[in-house]
Amino acid sequence: MHFLYNLLVTLLVVLAAPVFLFRFIREEGFGRRLRQSFGFIPEEELAPVLQKDCIWLHAASVGEIVAASPIIKEISHELPDKPILISVVTSSGYDMAKRIIKDADSIIFFPLDLPYLSHSVVKRVRPSVFLLVETELWPNFLKAARHFSIPVMMVNGRISDKSVERYHYMRSILKSMLNTVEKFCMQSTIDAQYIIRLGADVQRVVVTGNTKFDQTYTNVTLKEQQTLRQGMGIEESVPVLVAGSTHPGEEEILLIAFQKVRESYPSAKLLIAPRDIIRSEEIVNLAATYGFKGILRTKFSQQSREQHDIIVLDTIGELGKVYSIGVIIYVGGSLVPRGGHNILEPAAHGKPILVGPHMFNFKETYALFSGRQACVTVYDAETLGTTFLELLNNEELRLKMSQETLAIIEENRGASRKSVMYLKELLGRIN
């Protein structure tokens, strides 16, 4: 099975060559990402961690980086002599890591999981431990870790329904991958049950909670909120609705709901942050078809301060702070069957949260917040618009949801510390 996996991965890379070439020509910075993905990591990038028993933490993209940030802060506090290497897969993840993680000694792009390539990079770095965030299981990389006797630990582990089905097709490889992981620190009991069902040793599985409850990088002062509003031409008295991580099919629903809101609140603004920022211009054009003036966040300061109705966020890593200026937050990927996105970033600001019914990727978090009336489920443009208005008209209800949200956040802090305690225990066993 490992041979077939290597054959398939190699074939996929070959087939992707034209795409790599196109992006190399058209996309700024892609060349560096591509070179590092093939193992050509400059010496100066690795110098702070090379052969220094570093802690290597891998977080694929933006969401995983957010989850990793409080863990890294805790590692720096508990293990100050250990250099920290972070690897990512996406450019947005790299930019986010550079932006919010100041304790990392080196940030690189993760090598493609090709035969011999992972072995070469692991041999070069020789970390003391490898931490994978959520479910980043790569057969060749874990095989290299086994070869060099490098312990592996999963932190903030999360297994979606789709992952359970997908990994079943890798059954023979999966067993060796799971046996390589010394400790599984899972977000919830459901995630723990899933990883055990896939074949993890029950003695190695613990529930530590979700590290995103611990994140602080989105903390915003009142002065910073004022600066954010001014940067988008929004007056203090104007109510702002924020829709984060939206997908195709959701913006139309939001715009119809916003039409209903504007009937009662003509000065209200809608801020849309698409999951894929390449769609930003498309959403500005879509807004015009519904009678709204839309503007891109990055272009606002360059244009005249003309009246606008909708701001489309086309920046990376800013949404977590932008949530702070919203009166009500809608979290995307949930009115369409994408599984939703994590509600903890707006929750950290104590905001009333709305989601659609498709929250299957965050079942436990969703159940926790909805069970305590800290978030409301909507189903279409009609219920979304009605719920927006109900909350805008009822300050007491908004305050109640806000207080409950902050209470949940406070009650569930501590996952990062628990994870690092297990890390220290693991390092103590091997030293």
From TrEMBL:
EC supergroup of this enzyme: transferase
Pfam (any one): Glycos_transf_N
Enzyme Commission identifier(s): 2.4.99.12
Alphabetical list of Gene3D superfamilies matching this protein: 3-Deoxy-D-manno-octulosonic-acid transferase, N-terminal domain, Glycogen Phosphorylase B
Segments forming domain 3-deoxy-D-manno-octulosonic-acid transferase N-terminal: 33-215
Transmembrane segments: 6-25
Keyword field: Cell membrane, Lipopolysaccharide biosynthesis, Membrane, Transferase, Transmembrane, Transmembrane helix
Compartments where found: Cell membrane
Gene Ontology MF term list: transferase activity
Pathway in which the depicted protein is active: Bacterial outer membrane biogenesis; LPS core biosynthesis
Catalytically driven reaction(s): lipid IVA (E. coli) + CMP-3-deoxy-beta-D-manno-octulosonate = alpha-Kdo-(2->6)-lipid IVA (E. coli) + CMP + H(+)
First-listed, main subcellular location of the protein, grouped into a coarse class: membrane
UniProt record similarity statement: Belongs to the glycosyltransferase group 1 family.
Function: Involved in lipopolysaccharide (LPS) biosynthesis. Catalyzes the transfer of 3-deoxy-D-manno-octulosonate (Kdo) residue(s) from CMP-Kdo to lipid IV(A), the tetraacyldisaccharide-1,4'-bisphosphate precursor of lipid A.
Entries under PANTHER family matching the protein: 3-DEOXY-D-MANNO-OCTULOSONIC ACID TRANSFERASE, MITOCHONDRIAL-RELATED, 3-DEOXY-MANNO-OCTULOSONATE CYTIDYLYLTRANSFERASE
Protein name: 3-deoxy-D-manno-octulosonic acid transferase
Organism of origin: Pelosinus baikalensis
Upper taxonomic lineage: Bacteria, Bacillati, Bacillota, Negativicutes, Selenomonadales
